[in-house]
Structures are given as C-alpha cells and as structure tokens.
Design a protein that fits this description.
The protein is of the alpha/beta class. Helix content is about 30%, strand content about 15%.
C-alpha cells in the first residue's frame, strides 16, 4: 500500500508539472510514513518535481515540531526531505501558537499562497481515517462538521483519542475544494468505519466525518487487507 501511495503521489505531481507548482497536503499519523520514506528516496525521488512542490498538512497536534507526536516532524523525518525541495516550500501548521491562533495564522498563510479564491485548491490532499470515522482532526459530533466559511479550524483536545492534545485542522470546505483526495487506511481497527463509508446502503455521511469528503476531482481509497476485510465486494 505504501508503494502504491508513493507512486500515486509521484504521478499526480508529474501531471501538475505544467502548472508551475504542486500543492500537497500531507496526512498525519503513522500509516503514511512508509509512503513518505519511499517518496524521498530513489527511484521515486528522482521523478518528483521538488522545486515546484509545496508541502502543507491536513492537521497538526499543538506540540513542537521536535515532539514525537508532531505530524510535521514525523513526516519530514520520514521524507528526508531531499535537498532539491526548497525549505521555503515547506509550510507547517504553526500549532504551537494554540488551536485558535494557530488556525488563524495558517489560514492567513493559505490565503496568501492561493490568493483571493473562495477555497484553497490543493492539487492533492492525503487523509487518514480513525476507527470512529474521523479524518484530519474533524471528529464525529464536532461543530467543525458544519463550518463552511473557514479554511482552518482549531480543535480542542479529544477526550476519546490519544494523544489528548488540542489540534489545528483543515476544514471540510478546504478539503473538498482539493482537486484530488487520497485516503490511506490500514489496520483491522478501521475496518468497520471503512465498511460503513464505502457501503452504498449505509448513510455514513450523517455520522462519520470522513464520509463527507467529496473533492472537486478524484477521491481514492488505498486500503490494506485488514482495513478492507469488512467489504463484501470491491467498492
């Protein structure tokens, strides 16, 4: 799955070569780290248009980048990153400011990058999935589900999920404005949520945040066997 995800990212980046830049929002958590390691090393690294790549994040915990729970810190450690990627092209979420100030600062940065548009048009957003159906840091029952006029949101520490720290997350409005979204999901704990979201007979959008992800273009799901074991047939 990691190799397939890395190849998918490279293919998306190659397609965007003519656009002058490729905006990629990375997912947090441990599942995508193997893909990031492959992406930062030959042969895939030799194909990536690093000078045109701009790295963002779909969410971040309110910890320092050196902290073991930092999404940006873990992703950059796995990626390398290659010397060909300009340091100015790396845009971590300033989550150490706190959830609300960090969200406001990150949204200002996104608006400066994408310009006067209704929503940021990332070329590719990577997302994970929690056993409860959350994605990024948008949790079931959260007020964030109904926020449509913000790109970035501060989220209080979840009581049901480790690590119990506040977070900053892309809002659904920003995620759904992306051209392409790729979910990377692994492990048996995610199987029930995957089954509900991908089942045509279950209205998961009423309860599971990940089911509300509907980008402008392609929506792809990459699953390992454990995560897919609840599916009766290929979605």
């Amino acid at each position: 799955m990691a190799a397939a995800a890395a190849d998918f990212i490279v293919a998306q980046a190659e397609k965007a070569k003519g656009a002058g830049r490729f905006s990629l929002a990375l997912a947090g958590g441990t599942t995508p780290l193997a893909a990031y390691r492959l992406l930062g090393r030959p042969p895939r690294a030799d194909r990536m248009p690093w000078p045109r790549l701009h790295l963002f994040w779909s969410d971040e915990r309110c910890v320092a980048m050196s902290h073991p729970e930092s999404n940006a810190g873990a992703a950059l450690a796995a990626l390398g990153p290659p010397q060909a990627l300009p340091r100015g092209n790396i845009h971590p979420i300033p989550a150490t400011l706190g959830p609300r100030p960090g969200a406001e600062a990150y949204e200002r940065g996104l608006r400066a990058f994408f310009g006067p548009v209704e929503a940021p048009t990332f070329d590719l957003v990577l997302l994970g999935l929690g056993p409860d159906g959350h994605t990024a840091s948008i949790f079931p029952g959260s007020p964030a589900l109904d926020v449509m006029d913000r790109w970035v949101l501060g989220v209080p520490a979840p009581a049901h999920l480790e690590p119990r720290v506040a977070r900053v997350t892309l809002a659904l409005a920003a995620i759904n404005a992306a051209w392409t979204v790729l979910f990377l999901v692994s492990g048996p704990a995610k199987a029930d949520a995957v089954r509900k979201i991908l089942s045509p007979s279950f209205d998961a959008a009423k309860t599971l945040p990940a089911a509300r992800v509907k980008p402008q273009g392609d929506l792809a799901w990459f699953l390992d066997r454990d995560a897919a074991r609840g599916l009766e047939e290929r979605p």
